[in-house]
Amino acid sequence: MSTFKDIEDYYFSGDYGNAYKLSCLLAEGDDLKAIRFLGWLYARGEGCEKDKNKAITFFDRAAKRGDAEALFGIATIYYEEKDYGKAIFYLEGAKENGFTPAWKWLGIMYHLGLGVDKDIDKAFELYSEAAKRGNVAASIHLTAMLRHGYRGLWGRVMSIPMFIRYFITTFIIASKDKNSQRLM
């Protein structure tokens, strides 16, 4: 009997066609991870034709069952379309449901003023929370903010050991699991 692990094996070996076929099969059996994964496949056009509407349909189906990553998936589609208001709405939902990368991406939205008023302090707060939750990519954003003068000279000094630590941590995580949520 096939499992979601089989889908991942196909996908990470580059066999998107079989990953798609098996995802469809398991989604018919109501496998939550397979349903969400179909959203990602349609969003990226891997193993199937890229189709934003189908991606949102599968993400929505998973989100209705409480899947926070599916909300994040919908947010990425709207982000790519530059519909930042909708992206923020779904990122907030993913964050409220505990999907750590949503904190980092909301930090980016506030940092750059995408769909919201630019708010560096709010961005720093969101990056900090994501970093506390183990998101290394958010830690790198924090380090960059400090390096570029946020919190003055003290922030610049603190950024040096932080950068070294996060660079090494990122390398280690990426070498073990390049698809880790800690890097999203």
Number of strands: 0
Order of helices and strands: HHHHHHHHHH
Gyration radius, to the nearest Å? 18 Å
Average pLDDT? 87
What is the approximate shape? globular
Low-confidence blocks of residues: none
Q: Could you give the distance between the termini?
A: 31 Å
Alpha-beta classification:
mainly alpha
Helix content: over 70%
The largest sheet, given as strand count, sense and whether it forms a barrel, is: none
Number of helices: 10
As a percent range, the share of strand residues is: under 5%
Question: Could you please describe the fold and organization of this structure?
Answer:
It contains 10 helices and no strands. Helix 4 (52-63) packs antiparallel against helix 5 (68-80). The longest helix is centred in the last third of the chain and has 25 residues, at 152-176. The model has no long low-confidence stretch (mean pLDDT 87). The protein has 184 residues and is mainly alpha-helical. The protein starts with a helix and ends in an 8-residue tail after the last helix.
Tell me briefly what this model is:
With 184 residues, the protein is mainly alpha-helical. It has 10 helices and no strands.
List the helices and strands and how they pair.
Blueprint: H1 4-12, H2 16-28, H3 32-44, H4 52-63, H5 68-80, H6 84-96, H7 101-112, H8 120-132, H9 136-147, H10 152-176
Helix pairs in contact: 1-2, 2-3, 3-4, 3-5, 4-5, 5-6, 6-7, 7-8, 8-9, 9-10
Task: Give a quick set of tags describing it.
184 residues; mainly alpha; 10 helices; 73% helix; 0% strand
